[in-house]
Amino acid sequence: WSILRGATGQCLLVEDASCTRENLSLDAIPDVDVNAPAQLCFTSSTSGNPKCVVASWKNITANMLHVADYYTATDNRVMLSVFPLGHTLAIMGEFLVPLYQACTIYILREPAVPDTLLDAYIEIRPFEIVLVPMVAERFLSDKYIERFRQVLEFVEIGVVCGAKLKKELEDRLTSIGFPLTIPYGMTECSPIVSISKPSNYESYSSGQI
User: Fold this and answer.
1) pTM higher than 0.85
2) pLDDT in tens, 125-136
């Protein structure tokens, strides 16, 4: 397990010297009750009352396998984790799925502002980027559009999530060749309910269940 240096900040490289290829055995992996709680998430949902959501190992694993089957890193197996990992979507989309696909995961240690994000993208060239609509809109402004076009040269999947994507913004993103992917979900569903991908993208939809 390693967390490598990000584009603009130092990260701790974590290594377990006892875990080597020679002494690693599948027999040593403990049995897990798939219905046992794996994660407790505090959420207020979109408009509901704050609550604690319990996700089982089966919930999380099933979601991870379905999402990983839906899109896969091809040539560029690098991911930049931007969102706080206390968020279920960040855990799934920026950590568990890339980890399952044996990607290198960089952790952004600085605030995810447009300048920092674009610098990091251009330096490490991730196969996927995850944006909220507000940041996507900033990238399309005159100040950032040319650097954003550089990112489009290598990005295979561009996820926009976390809030409703306005039609006007969606049209602008697709018009410049942004490989749009829109997931819809909630913490209670661990978390992704439906997802689109560039190869079967339909305008103004949140993809297939």
Assistant:
1) no
2) 998 999 999 999
